[in-house]
Amino acid sequence: MIIWLETLMIAPLSKNLQRVRCGVLTVEIEHVDAATLEKLEQQGVDCQPKASTIRIIQDKYLQKVHFSRHGIPLPEFMQIDDLESAKRAGDLYGYPLMIKSKRLAYDGRGNAVAKSEEELSSVITVLGGFDHGLYVEKWAPFVKELAVIVARGRDNSILCYPVVETIHKENICHVVKAPANVSSKIQKMATEVACKAVSSLEGAGVFAVELFLTEDGQILLNEVAPRPHNSGHHTIESCYTSQFEQHLRAVVGLPLGDPSMKTPAAIMYNLLGEDEGDRGFDLAHQLIGRALCVPGATVHWYDKPEMRKQRKMGHITIVGPSICKVQNRLDSMLNKEKFNSQSAVTPRVGIIMGSDSDLPVMKDAAKILNMFGVPNEVRVVSAHRTPELMYSYASSAHERGIQVIIAGAGGAAHLPGMVAALTPLPVVGVPVRATALDGVDSLLSIVQMPRGVPVATVAVNNATNAGLLAARILGASDANLRARMSQYLEDMRDEVLVKAEKLERNGWESYLNP
Amino acid sequence: MIIWLETLMIAPLSKNLQRVRCGVLTVEIEHVDAATLEKLEQQGVDCQPKASTIRIIQDKYLQKVHFSRHGIPLPEFMQIDDLESAKRAGDLYGYPLMIKSKRLAYDGRGNAVAKSEEELSSVITVLGGFDHGLYVEKWAPFVKELAVIVARGRDNSILCYPVVETIHKENICHVVKAPANVSSKIQKMATEVACKAVSSLEGAGVFAVELFLTEDGQILLNEVAPRPHNSGHHTIESCYTSQFEQHLRAVVGLPLGDPSMKTPAAIMYNLLGEDEGDRGFDLAHQLIGRALCVPGATVHWYDKPEMRKQRKMGHITIVGPSICKVQNRLDSMLNKEKFNSQSAVTPRVGIIMGSDSDLPVMKDAAKILNMFGVPNEVRVVSAHRTPELMYSYASSAHERGIQVIIAGAGGAAHLPGMVAALTPLPVVGVPVRATALDGVDSLLSIVQMPRGVPVATVAVNNATNAGLLAARILGASDANLRARMSQYLEDMRDEVLVKAEKLERNGWESYLNP
User: Fold this and answer.
1) What is the ipTM of this complex?
2) Interface test with chain B among A188, A240, A254, A405, by most B beta carbons within 10 Å
3) Which one of 3.40.50.1970, 3.30.450.40, 3.30.1490.190, 3.40.640.10 gives the CATH number of domain A349-477?
């Protein structure tokens, strides 16, 4: 039997635990009475994670001291006991200055920012004064907030979920994007810091590690939650093992499940309480209604007994083939005026050419992709005449949801190779036959790329094959598209066989002169 | 309030329905009392699907007559009333002959096969004689059994889930593979037959349409279930909207959800009851234990109060990047001796070459893929010297989980183009410099493919770029791999900048003569 604590006080439970056979005790929130947990541990109750972890985490100042001792990178911080020490901290760290309650801080409660020394006194009053313990943190000039869910089994095996980006509004988590759009170097750093932080704590379970990515590319730890967390809610729909199943696997000693994503992208949007009372459900009700028409959207309504302003009342997760696509779907869901469940189709293939004179050749790529039902866009982008446009098009294409770029050019055909140098996407090059040299110039300019930057070159003027290649590339991960490509090959065969039969039946003379 | 009927008799419920406010009445199984349903409808209870549908479906003979009248392709069938008429049916349809109970047939109960006229009498006895109604079906010489889940909303909007293959053992569904490995033409036919069948029935909900694919490529209807169905259990993990959520959306009049797959492949394995009593859980217990170590596997245990031999006690769904991969995972889970949770990695890229003399060039593709952590295999496959091997390699590669083929060849370099003609996968061609013509022969043989069959050609001898192109192709649908490719481009830039800085610092003379 697993007992999952959802209450702030566990003392009344203590007696009952001795009567029921409790296999494992775990927590849903860290704000439980750590002393009682410790007593239970001494009595032989198996707490996961350990009471020591809960004690460290529930006091944010103690948490900072702990991680600092373990060499985890953190924003600077110090305890403040009176207005004087707060002012000294302000002098040392500058403003804005983050002031935090040590205990019972949750969902933005217990955090406040003083923009100047003049604001210190009022901010401290808002936080309830010094009685319950305050400390300050140097403002972390972050460019993004990231989070990593780390699972640790009873055998100390550790697995990490993909790094996500969390977007906060008024100190409350608002949106989570998975995976975070950061370089793989940053992903690795974030994962390493998260693992190191969790390794310094005792016990099995799922831990959420919140991080800052600073302007200068550093990862700093913000705080850790010793439990499933808002930043991992997307895992229910997007990962092979949800954070909730993972927590249960971890605490009872089952093997940890695969934490990787089964959908390429996910975005989670929190439904926060609006006004007190019934009126507060207006916006949530609208959003839920619209979410039912959004492909890949799943609504979670917690059915909490009481609405409170800014309280997390539910969330909506949207999963899909790219972060761009799920972002578009979220935007259309949030924007009442423009909402349209059949929102504009995101192109998957970009067809670009150096000049509109290439269009008579390049149109064939678009025709083929339309035949296969692959959304595409057609643009003129010239390496030599619009280099800035080429730079911005190529370097941002993958963020817009483009998955393959087809580039056609003639003569000194630089467009495909230059684009390939600016994007991680596969680039298909179409050598267009120019006025001189019969296309050999275009072909060699496109195909003979240096080591490191490949262009998938097709035959001279053969944009049909470029379209087919793009469809095959997308089909590498899309069984439906692949089946249609097999059908296309079969249809081609059948067409040829009809002609072959006609030739056999009629003889070559009448075939040539019908 | 939705009332979901799980009992065989609804008459006792009839009175209660008038007391509680019943919004919609739906069924979990078609073997309910249709007369009572009809009476409820007359009393104004909203039944979805309609009582008329339940009445048609629950009598399999009536079902056949209904679909036959609506022009749905079916195996031939006729009612039998005595041994004489059974013998006449045998004479007409030949043997083996399928004999079925009209009513209460479920999970293989009520179906039996007579292999010859001599067996007729005993088979009819096993089915309980003629008292409850029997009919016969002409044996359908099917190559595969397929199924389509069709959802219809209250507004008559219709959406179909992807066609799946169902594999039966002793007339009980054993394994479901999604999507079915059939051509897109067959998928389209199956979906059309399924839609037509459901359109002939009344009311909203989810319907499962079971189909035969015959040797000559025809689709015949087997039977329809007016409810969520075993062939749709995989949708819980693999589709944007599960069949259960879809059924609820349909019957209460919400917009239907997206039925498409969010993971490329899924396989569902039924956990059937073994012996009566506790011993019957042995195998299930072992399988569940192993499933916990299989990536992408989810265990569903129904916790039915009583174990019966061949009763569906639960199921395990495995989702993953390809049907080949999930099949491998299922195989390793089922095979106790060889079970290994870290089962052999399926190659995603096949690197082939016409001769081992190409290996010094082609090895660079494998090196790059290893660097990016992409599993690959390296093989010698010659178009001219091993044409049969080439044929079988190319035409089966996608079924083995290969997603990209890299083919290298020199001189009259036919391998890449021939392979591209035999597979729907993207093929990357590497022109290997042969002894004469400096690689121009290889390049032109590979790149100048006819319309319809593209080869993604890279520079002469540049297998590094072929490996990078394969990684970019896989990265088109894999944000993680794409992020690593961006990092690779950044690292290349940094390497060049280091050299540039050294040149600037030391001057060109000392750079050339250090």
Assistant:
1) 0.82
2) A240
3) 3.40.50.1970
